[in-house]
Amino acid sequence: MHSERSQVPLERDYLSCGAIYQSLSSEDLQAFHQYLKRTSDIDLQDPEEHSQRTSDIEFQTKMTIKATNGATVTLPCEATDAKDVMWIKRTQQGKNNLIYLGGHTFGSTDDFVYSNGNLAIAELGELHQGLYITTSLQQFQDNSVATAYNVICDESCRYINYTVDYGSTIILPVDYSLRNESDKVKWSTDSFYGDITETGNKGKYNLQQNGNLLIRHVDDNDNCIFHCKLYDSIIYYSVTVKSEPVYR
């Protein structure tokens, strides 16, 4: 049973990692410290040192995801090593829940599925709404910006809808429940004819090994429907590109 967590206000587009750290329950904090002991040389006996190394991290919200009730929503993580992934959920009540860290789950695991670092909500409902934050432990220690997803359950959605800032780099994920490892994934869009082709690590598109599609520097041409084609299924993603920040 998790103890009560303090409420931390959300200011503009950013969340302080120090505030999240301070609001974790005693159980989550203990687990986090144990993980740090195994993977870093941080002196956990010196709270000021640890606070100084973590309080300046900013979590920038990169996109809003809307989907209908019961949909499978996969939140991608950019970290390459799943054992280095951390997921935190910030509820609408302002509580921060550590739900995944270094291959270990915390709290109820019935609602979430983890695959290659990605976090999937098997059947989206109102209780799943909130801000999901992902980073790697290395980013956490290096005061880097992490990725956050504002998840909203919306019955009017026909597709899984992404709202992103102009110029962002985003990842469209493969639905874990539909894909077998042997399936070849193809991506296309209704903005041009034919499948999306690989453009390498510095180009517009990057087809990742797990089947996800990475899109760099989204612009007006990406304001469209993307199709993820598997053997006998197609997943549709509607991308809306905003010229102004999503959160004010």
Automatic annotation (TrEMBL):
The protein's name: Ig-like domain-containing protein
Gene3D superfamilies documented for this protein: Immunoglobulins
Lineage, uppermost ranks: Eukaryota, Metazoa, Echinodermata, Eleutherozoa, Echinozoa
Source domain of life: Eukaryota
UniProt-listed InterPro entries: Ig-like_dom_sf, Ig-like_fold
Cross-referenced SUPFAM superfamilies: Immunoglobulin
Organism of derivation: Holothuria leucospilota
